Amino acid sequence: MSMKKWLAMIILFSFFAYMLWEHITERQTIASGIHIGMKAPDFSLQTIDGKVIQLSQLRGKAVIVNFWATWCPPCRAEMPDMQTFYERYEKQIEIVAVNVMVRDSKEKVNQFVKDYRLTFPVVLDVDGHVMKQYDIQPIPTSFIIDRQGIIREKQIGPMSYEQMVQYVEKWGK
User: Fold this and answer.
1) pTM listed for this prediction
2) Which candidate, 91, 85, 92, places its Cα nearest to that of 66?
3) CA distances in angstroms from 58 to 6, 61, 104, 140, 149, listed in the order given
4) What 3-state class would DSSP assign to 1?
5) pLDDT tens digit sequence for 93-136
6) Handedness of CA 43, 33, 66, 104 (dihedral sign)
7) I need a surface site. Which of 30, 73, 92, 95 has the fewest CB within 10 A?
8) pLDDT digit string (tens) for 43-65?
């Protein structure tokens, strides 16, 4: 066989080997959505002090996305536990508290954060877009998202400190 034929066969073999490798190692795409096992829909919202938090930028860390309002009694009840939890586990899991801004104002949220001495990120869903995106009905509602951005748990109603610890032990490692 001539050198040209050998070269052509090597190139052809290499091409097919590469295509086979691509097919075998191809990552399965996970659909975005709000159900367990789906990739959490990305969002970008501002904190009270104007910083922008984008959910996808938190990849690599487990996240609790908590939807709440200042006037909601169960939301108020879970906040002290959430703050205590955050102080202990913030290196393993992030909390993003999304204020749904229904009957709330930036001033009310700011006062609430001060009164409860919250140190985790609180973002404002001013136009309700993220609330609609996540189909939030009752509040509080929380989504527990793993390090790869996949929804692993959905908690409707307030979370206790113990539940948060269970979530971090399961998804925050």
Assistant:
1) 0.83
2) 85
3) 50, 6, 26, 21, 8
4) coil
5) 999 999 999 889 999 999 999 999 999 999 999 999 999 999 99
6) positive
7) 73
8) 999 999 999 999 999 999 999 99
> Which residues are within 8 A (CB) of 61 and not within 5 positions of it... i.e. 6 or more apart?
92, 93, 94, 147, 172
**In the chain, what are the helix, strand and coil shares in percent, each to the nearest 5?**
40, 20, 35
Q: What angle do CA 129, 130, 135 make, to 5 degrees?
A: 100
**Rounded to whole angstroms, how far apart are CA atoms 71 and 172?**
30
Q: How far apart are the first and last CA of the chain?
A: 57
- What is the rounded CA–CA span in Å between residue 27 and residue 32? 15
The whole-angstrom separation of Cα 96 and Cα 80 is 15
Distance CA 101, CA 108 (A): 10
Q: Cα–Cα distance between 89 and 150 in angstroms, integer?
A: 20
